[in-house]
Write a structure and sequence with these properties.
Elements lengths: L2 E8 L4 E6 L2 E7 L7 E5 L2 E8 L5 E6 L5 E9 L3 E6 L4 E6 L6 E6 L8 E11 L2 E8 L6 H27 L3
């Protein structure tokens, strides 16, 4: 069963809203001076706990299951990230271009030919509002975690890009 969602992030806001057929079904929220992000999609409630200084790792906590860690995200050089769930399933985050207008979560197989794109994201408008679509083809209970992780990773890289641009602009 395919899932089709829409996401919106207004200018100057820290929240991303996720809708299905015009009805809000989830969101990502980052408090003002926090690195951690709270996220929800349908009945799934997660906290992305960012740790580390130069090289960050993210523990994903399931808030509905006594804050149990259900996965981790590791970031690599070159805007690469890898999501490993507690089941052992590994997903790779991959962008299609430098502007990050399209990106995917790819379930890793035993070989490269066994890899499968399971969640596709697109950025369709980028002026004062960023918004796009999400198509997921993952008949699994972990689909909500993978969808939220893909959006989190994209926003993480966007924040890092803006921080670096600000440091350059101020001559740091």
């Amino acid at each position: 069963m395919a899932t089709n969602l829409h996401w919106v992030k207004q200018a100057f806001e820290r929240d991303v809203h996720i809708t299905e057929n015009g009805v809000e079904v989830g969101q990502l929220h980052r408090a003002l001076l926090e690195r951690d992000v709270n996220a929800s999609l349908y009945t799934t409630r997660l906290r992305f706990d960012v740790t580390g200084f130069l090289i960050n790792t993210v523990n994903i906590h399931d808030l509905a299951a006594a804050d149990r860690i259900v996965g981790t995200i590791k970031f690599y050089f070159g805007k690469r990230a890898e999501l490993t769930l507690d089941t052992g399933t590994v997903y790779t985050w991959k962008r299609h271009n430098i502007l990050m207008r399209q990106w995917n979560m790819i379930r890793e197989g035993a070989t490269d030919t066994d890899d499968k794109e399971v969640v596709n994201y697109s950025l369709t408008r980028l002026f004062f509002t960023q918004e796009g679509d999400i198509q997921a083809d993952l008949p699994s209970p972990e689909v909500d975690i993978v969808i939220l992780a893909g959006l989190f990773i994209r926003n993480y890289f966007q924040r890092r890009r803006r921080t670096a641009a600000g440091a350059v602009a101020f001559g740091a």
